[in-house]
Amino acid sequence: MKTLFLAFFLIFQTTPVFAEELTGKVIAIADGDTLTVLGDNNQQTKIRLAEIDTPESGQPYGSRARQALAALAFGKQARIVETDRDRYGRIVGKVYVGGMDVNAELVRQGAAWVYRKYAKDQSLFALEAEARAAQRGLWALPEAQRVAPWDWRKAQRQQTPAAPTTSQEGGFTCGAKRYCREMTSCAEARFYLNSCGLSRLDGDRDGNPCESLCR
Asked: Based on the structure, what is the number of domains in the chain?
């Protein structure tokens, strides 16, 4: 009986866990590490690329990183291997176009950092070191401008608007508000995001703040 139990235990331990996969056409690029695919069932799914992090839109090279992802994937059929779900419910995964690992290619081009907190694929670190040595992409920027995206976001969260700024349209002023629940309208939420730099209002980084207000 004990031998039989041990056999079942070993089988369970060695049985591979198959990741969920989906395929679809890439129809939108939100930023350098987020895209949307239209699946075979005509359903749109937002994907966060796993194990990498690209400069934010407000950072140097942010728009270039978005362009790099678009050049690799936009309008093409992609296969996504899901590895996780993030706190916003988005699929986090490896994206493949043909035989190309898009996540790794972005790192190789110098368009993305290896996301230290979540990286498991050790080969990505070698690709980043190669891009850094060759000064590709963001690694060609002056050192002062090469701030890791996770550090940049942390600084943005801790940042307090330095001076009042007033909207020309709604009369809004940058103040002490920090959360979506404090916003009175979508217009005010957009003002705080775009004029006050309160990036926390755009949690999924799709350019649309406070989705409960801005539907």
From this structure: 2
